[in-house]
Predict the 3D structure of the following.
Amino acid sequence: MNQLRAQKQRVVPSTRLERYTRHFLLMTLTALSATELRIIGSLINSRIRDLAQLLEQVDHVRGTRICRVPEE
């Protein structure tokens, strides 16, 4: 009976709000030509997507998102 009561206590969701912080990474690339910029950008994009996929597997990471920053 005590084991059942202990299991029920663990299942009850916490009422406190969880605090989390968002972190951002901004990369600005400059190149000599548009072609060079596209090549460098695609290589970096590929590595960032690999990193995002790896981070998704970490327990305390809620999610990852890759998006372009609108140019002003």
Notes: The two ends are 64 Å apart (CA to CA).
